[in-house]
Amino acid sequence: MFNTLPSDPMILVSVVNTKLRDTYSSIDSLCDDLDVDKDELIGKLNKVNYKYNAEKNQFI
Q1: A Pfam family this protein belongs to (predicted)?
Q2: DSSP letter at 14?
Q3: Measured distance CA(25)–CA(43) in Å, rounded
Q4: Domain parsing of the chain, residue ranges
Q5: Selection from 27, 22, 56 nearest residue 42 by Cα
Q6: Alpha-carbon gap, residue 29 to 8, rounded angstroms
Q7: What letter would DSSP give residue 4?
Q8: Who's near 49: CB < 8 A, 6+ residues apart?
Q9: How far apart are CA 44 and CA 4, in angstroms?
Q10: pTM, two decimal places
Q11: Alpha-carbon gap, residue 43 to 17, rounded angstroms
């Protein structure tokens, strides 16, 4: 799943938030484009206390 994204959760949240800010208008478009399982991505970041905020389009 994370072939294109880092496996370390702290680096992952940084990379994902950068991609969401600079390239993708939503978590759905990021996951579709990068062929990433949305539930798995959200679950991995939830484990380190980051929640996706759709209004801000970032994990906080």
Answers
A1: DUF4250
A2: H
A3: 20
A4: 19-59
A5: 27
A6: 22
A7: T
A8: none
A9: 15
A10: 0.91
A11: 15
